[in-house]
Each structure stands twice: as C-alpha cells, then as structure tokens.
Design goal:
This protein is α/β, with parallel strands linked by helices and 327 residues long. The chain contains 14 helices and five strands. Helix 4 packs parallel to helix 5, helix 7 packs across helix 9 and helix 13 crosses helix 14. Bound molecules: zinc ion.
Length: 327
C-alpha cells in the first residue's frame, strides 16, 4: 500500500510532471491551486514521494527503497512539511528560516530535498519574504511545492517565482468511480458529489457519520421552525455544531432553496432536502431568501468578534423564525 497516490483526475498534471522530470526541466518551485477538496496536498505529497524514491518503477515510487520506507513510516529527513502550528494560524518567518537552514545542508539520503508548504496563503508577510529569498537563490536538487486554495492572497512576487498548476475537479463519472468504493451501500456517490460542488474529498467528508448526523439534525430543526416550534429550544439542539460550519450549512440551505424555486430540482446541490426547500421557497420567496442569505453572510463575518455561542444561535434562529412566519 503506497502512502501517497495521485488521484485519477490528477492524471494529466502527473504525466506532464513526469515528462518534465525526465527532461530535467521540472521548475524548482511549483504552486498547486484549485478549490479545496480536490486532493491538491495529496498530489504534492505524491510528487515528493516520487522524487525522493531512489528506485522508481515506471511512473510510480517503488515503495521498497530506504526512502520510500521512511515516508511510509511517517518521517523522512529530506521531506519538510511547512504548515501552521494550528488551524487558522499563520506560517511564521522562523519556520521558514529553520527550513531554509536545513535545506542548505546536503540531503540526508544523497538525493532530492522536498519542501511542501500548505496552505501557502497562511504565510505571513515576513514568512513570504523570507521564502521569496530562498526561492531566488535555489539550492540544487531542492523542490518546493506550494499548495493554495486562494492563490490570489499570495504576494504576486511569490507567485511569479512558481510554476502554477491548476487542479480541476473530475468529471461526474470519474468522481463517482473514485468515491463509490469508499461509501456504504446506502450512500449515493452522485448525490454526495453534487452536494460537495463536485469536489470528491469534500464529498467524502459529507459522508462521515458526524456530517450525516449534523445534516439530519439541521433538517429536523428547520422543519420544526416551519411548524412554529420555539426557536430558543431549537437553538439548544444546534450547539453540537461548530458555529462556522453551521452558518455555512445554513447558507447552502438557503442557496439551495432559492435554486429549487428558480431553477427547479435540477439546479439543487443537495437533493436530499427537496420537500423542505420547497417549503422554504414558498414561505420566504426569492427576495426573502436573498435577504436572509445576505444577513447570514454578515453574521459569518462577525463570528470571531461574537464569542457568545448561545446568544448567537438563539438570535439566529429567532431571525429565521421571524422570516418564516412573516414573509
Ligand atoms: Zn522507492
């Protein structure tokens, strides 16, 4: 079992890289861009695995050499993974300096050294400048792989030092074929893939028991609000949600209700909630839904300045309730 494999929809990029490697013209810095949930980081790691392998078998790492065994064990002295220390935090300049000084030493295994930076938009300005310097004076046999969902947030000077590779979502058929073996018999790959906006890894996340549970709970609460239940009582049921993900869920809920009303069933992303979408559209109408969606966006932006979760949830549901009963 190989630890990092590129995915079927990466095939074109993978083949182009292989050609560049054979012709010894793989640029020393690559920037992988594209939506989240497309396996960009896995693709970067697959490349690292391949470059570090000392005994390639065709287009794949051998899985047997010392280097491959290091990677399988979860640690390789010549593979540097630069990530924020906690989610949402920045990648700091001292992390870049540490990496740069390690990369300057000759490689432990006598071959390539690989640095993966994820998510690259987390580099703070000092870190980005320090990295830029490193990229401007590249060490031999050192491969930099930057991975970003939001490349426009990177300094243009940094972007211009990298060859940019845009990872595209798979076709529906390709995505379904990849997803199906990883789901239970009751789960429908097409429904999940659509609900995830065509992004297979995101679809896989939606298929976890925790995500299914949350979706079910949210549907129950929405149904209760339509029936006129007490919003404060309903709010207490939603405390298990991380607030940001609750707002995201609600926003896609409203967007889907709107699509359902305007475009019909085919326009909907998550087709499992059609009866409730119909009711939402009937009760709120196009204007009401748009308005509420804007309000939620505003709430989303205030999240980090509004730490009282209970109050926030209650006012959110009271607002929803008002909208549902008045408009
Ligand atoms: Zn190997």
């Amino acid at each position: 079992m190989k630890p990092f494999q590129s995915m079927p929809w990466h095939a074109l990029i993978w083949r182009q890289w292989q050609q560049q490697i054979q012709e010894k013209r793989l640029p020393h810095a690559l920037l992988l861009t594209g939506l989240s949930g497309l396996g960009k980081r896995t693709l970067g790691r697959a490349l690292a695995y391949f470059l570090l392998c000392t005994n390639h078998q065709g287009l794949q790492a051998c899985g047997k050499c010392r280097s491959c065994r290091f990677i399988e064990a979860g640690f390789h002295p010549d593979l540097h993974l630069l990530e924020p220390e906690a989610e949402g935090k920045a990648i700091r300049v001292d992390q870049i300096r540490d990496m740069a000084s390690q990369v300057q030493k000759s490689s432990q295994q006598g071959g390539y050294k690989v640095v993966i930076i994820w998510p690259a938009e987390a580099l703070n300005i000092n870190a980005a400048n320090a990295l830029l310097k490193t990229l401007e004076e590249p060490e031999p046999n050192t491969q930099f792989i930057l991975v970003s969902d939001r490349p426009s947030s990177l300094p243009a000077t940094l972007r211009s030092r990298c060859q940019i590779w845009a990872v595209k979502p798979p076709s529906l058929e390709q995505g379904k074929a990849w997803l199906k073996p990883q789901l239970t018999n009751e789960q429908n790959p097409e429904v999940l893939l659509k609900a995830a906006g065509g992004r297979p890894l995101h679809a896989l996340k939606l298929a976890t028991p925790a995500a299914e549970e949350r979706r079910y709970l949210l549907a129950q609460v929405m149904e209760a609000l339509i029936r006129g239940a007490d919003p404060i009582e309903q709010a207490s049921k939603l405390k298990v949600f991380p607030l940001a993900s609750l707002l995201t869920n609600l926003q896609s809920w409203l967007a889907d209700s709107l699509r359902y009303g305007v475009l019909g069933e085919a326009g909907v992303q998550d087709s499992r909630q059609l009866p409730l979408y119909r009711q939402f559209f009937q009760l709120l109408g196009q204007q009401g839904l748009l308005h509420l969606e804007q309000e939620l966006q505003g709430m989303h932006q205030q999240l980090h300045t509004n730490p009282n979760v209970d109050l926030f949830l209650e006012s959110l549901l009271i607002r929803l309730m008002q909208a549902l009963s008045h408009e």
